[in-house]
Amino acid sequence: MTTRQDCVVRDRHDPLAPLREQFHLPDGVIYLDGNSLGVRPKATTERMQQVLHDEWGTDLIRSWNTAGWIHLPQRVGNKIARLVGAGENELVVADSTSVNLYKVLSAAARIQRERDPQRRAILSERSNFPTDLYIAESLCKELGWTLRLLEADEVESHLGPEVAVLMLTQVNYRTGRMFDMARLTAAAHAAGVLAVWDLCHSAGAVPVDLKGADADFAIGCGYKYLNGGPGAPAFVWVHPRHADAFSQPLSGWMGHAAPFEFIPHYQPAPGIARYLCGTPPILSMAALECGVDTVLAAEAHGGMAALRAKSVELTELFAQLVEERCAGHGLSVVSPRDAAQRGSQVCLTRSEGGYAIVQALIARGVIGDFRAGDSQMPDILRFGFTPLYTRYVDVWDAVEHLREVMESGEWQRPEFNRRHAVT
Q1: Is 110 known to be catalytic?
Q2: Is 374's pLDDT higher than 90?
Q3: Do 276 and 325 belong together in one domain?
């Protein structure tokens, strides 16, 4: 059985341990929620002061040129591209995940309507992230199409002649289950279907190879494993074979071929630049760049392969310790035990008290989160593991707190059962 001292030794010999120093981590907190909001990089504070004081405060509007503000979407996009297997100038930072998903789903739909008008369905997983389903549902209503939702294991076998687009999140937000992007994309293409991938729970946490998988479109957020801060801008990638096929539906001035000519009619920029829309949020993009740099710093320590190896070890250790040390308390691991099918999170379920258990842990300084279920899905206690700053001893201590919460019954206290606005 693993001991706390075993974890201390593993931390001492961890080649990624120096990367933890990049972050501001509050004393007395074990942070296992990087899959919802990444920790603040130390460099972000100085960078934001520079933007506020020098670039905005002193140079004012000149900074669009002198500080290169106008190029931030492409500059940060090229950095993210290195983490997700995209090429130079194929990915840009813009807008939110939901807005970018609307753009790429619309573009995919237009491509398919020209190829085969009989394809009038978007296929997705029933437990996909709700906002993705909402956006797809809205587009389907607009087009007169159908949104088909299936269980994860049913998706591949239903790529029929009526399906136009397959829309999946690579790592499921509820269970941590990870799809085989290359295999499912190949299956989609064999059936004449375009593949759209959401990378919100994988970019910066697990190896992603968009070009290698031959994906068609991808989107993702900047505030989870990329450590860009709350509400950080999202990113969008389009395979070069599709980039000039159609104008995306939100034809804002930043996606124009010549935005500063101020002509009255829209002319889309070439390539991925046409997926820009409005004026870039410079403060947020500057913060996001600091966050992306923390992930790129791992390149000197083995890169995404090393991050993935540690992620697998952390998640496996957590699941193992929960089963060993919390046995008899009704907790079940619902994330896949096969590492090849698991992202960088472990999710637990219990027939009752899930929300209160998470709140009791938070009161002890162990921060995870809770996702409510319904008649088809159980409540989820969710814990994310960011290899850049999560230690093995953090995992051991978190499970020890969980054991104490369960054995003491403190989760039943009234204050832990009062719902907050954000769970």
Answers
A1: no
A2: no
A3: no
- Based on the fold, state whether residues 147 and 277 are members of the same structural domain: yes
> Both 231 and 173 in a single domain?
yes
Q: How far apart are CA 284 and CA 222, in angstroms?
A: 10
Instruction: Encode pLDDT of 303-330 as tens digits.
Output: 999 999 999 999 999 999 999 999 999 9
Query: Binding site for pyridoxal 5'-phosphate: residue ranges?
Result: 97-98, 129-132, 169, 198, 201, 223, 253, 279
pLDDT per residue as tens digits for the range 164-201? 999 999 999 999 999 999 999 999 999 999 999 999 99
Which one from 23, 129, 385, 392 is the annotated catalytic residue?
129
338 as an active site residue: the answer is no
Cα angle 354-126-227, degrees, rounded to a multiple of 5: 65
Same domain, 173 and 283: yes
pLDDT at 245 (0 to 100): 86
User: Is 260 an active-site residue?
Assistant: no
pLDDT single digits (tens) 5-28 = 999 999 999 999 999 999 999 999
Q: What is the pTM of this model?
A: 0.96
pLDDT in the model for residue 247: 81
Domain membership of residue 384 as a residue range = 4-31+303-416
Segment 123-138, tens digit of pLDDT: 999 999 999 999 999 9
Supply the mean pLDDT for the chain.
96
Binding residues: 97-98, 129-132, 169, 198, 201, 223, 253, 279
The answer to whether residue 40 is catalytic is no
CB-CB contact of 348 with 401 (8 Å)? no
Catalytic pick from 14, 33, 95, 198? 198
**Identified catalytic residue from 224, 325, 364, 371:** 224
Catalytic, out of 31, 173, 217, 223: 223
Residue 423 within any structural domain of the chain: no
Count structural domains, the chain.
2
* Active-site option among 382, 383, 392, 403: 382
Has 392 been annotated as catalytic? no
pLDDT > 90? residue 279: yes
